[in-house]
Amino acid sequence: MSPLPRSPSAPGSMWLRRVRSGLRVAVSVALLYVLLRRVDGPRLLMLVPHMRVAWLLPAVGLLLLGFWLSARRWHLVLADLGVREPLVALLYINWLTFFWSNFLPTTVGGDGFRFWRLQSRHPRRKLAALTGVLLDRLYGYLALLAVHTALLPWTRAVWRSHEVLAGFEALVTAGLGGLAVLSLFGRRLLRWRLRGPAWLQAVARRVQEAVAALTGRSRRAWLGGLGYSALFVVGNGVMRWCYLHMVGATAPLGVVVYASTVAALLGILPITLNGLGLTEAALVLALAPVGVPAEAVLLASFAQRLVNLGLALLGGLAYLLEGVRT
Question: Per-residue confidence at 225, pLDDT binned at 50, 70, 90?
Fold first, then answer.
């Protein structure tokens, strides 16, 4: 396959991407600086020798379970689109993607790799491969919102205790209202012709295409995709709970899962380097009302990132060895 021709605006686009990446790094560094300035450095260092490494075993086990759930969801989505792939192959692709997701500025880079890898295996099904990646991501976001919303009644004392969290939950509620309206009028949107500027029409077409792709799926794909995603979200929360126990901090499991969903929702915002700094700030904010010190939250989060980076580097090594073998 011949490479795609470069457009005249390619150098400008590359410069813009570099500027965006630089800004994300700057925001992450600034957030980490603010967080570290507000914690007790000696107290943070004192926690390290007392870490209970045994909690690392269930944490890593939950991470691997998350890989399986993610691959199983993607397998189900692709099967619904008529793309047949062994589950083991999708697990392997997700492992390689973990490297790109951790070492590129955003997780979108990982999705790009997944699409590239899948369409190279199914060159005549490029549209289905792209739709499968997008739907897989969409199911994850919808389940994240669903789990987060389901936890709100049980964590009311937590998010009502801080005006920032209360404002965040107001925005989430507004977003859920928008999704409800979209689901009610989704089929009408497919037939609606929007008049206006070209850019607005392009956005409307993308929304219509997304609604069409979503509403055209089978019930099995819907239930399976959302079910596996919900288990993935809860598993991530339990994994953070294990890391907190590893550094000697305790908190109600439901509150930790809630804090994990807050961090994940904020991490979607493309303003930091893979959520670095923003995730930690969200966790500190959400766990402070239950008495978890910021030092323990940061140490647990850094420990989790270190484990993730180790697994991601192994995925990068596996990808490198592919090139050596060929």
Answer: very high
